What we know:
By secondary structure, this protein is mainly β. It is about 15% helix and about 40% strand. It comes from Gemmatimonas groenlandica.
Amino acid sequence: MPRRTTFRWLALSAALVGNSAVLFALARPIADYAATLAGKDGRKAHGTASVTPTTDGAGSEVSVTIADDTPGATRPWHIHAGSCEKSGGVVGGGRAYAPIVINDKGQGTGKATLAVVLADTTTYYVNIHDAAQAMGIIVACGDLKKK
């Protein structure tokens, strides 16, 4: 039975039982994630990242904050499959992530809405790149963990 049909049957079953907690748990096939970002290669930048499912369950909302970074810098960032130690491909396409602009206090935030969900059977990480011209240099990185 296809996954979507399975969830419809599970939702109907839970509704008939009248237990909304069961309905919520069964109808939610993806997890929330969080990461603590740490500076790489002696950099002091650090921050946090969180990923939650979109309200329709078809995508992911991503939020990143950075502190103690270089004022005025513009930082590309992405979620990747894998870990900070074992890199993988970008999740959701690179264009989904607007660069983070670091303010005069060394702080910045980024948000992205991905058209994909993060499967709870895969590992992921967030990395913050030095600049669009220096994507190979990682300023900060953090492995996403299920909440």
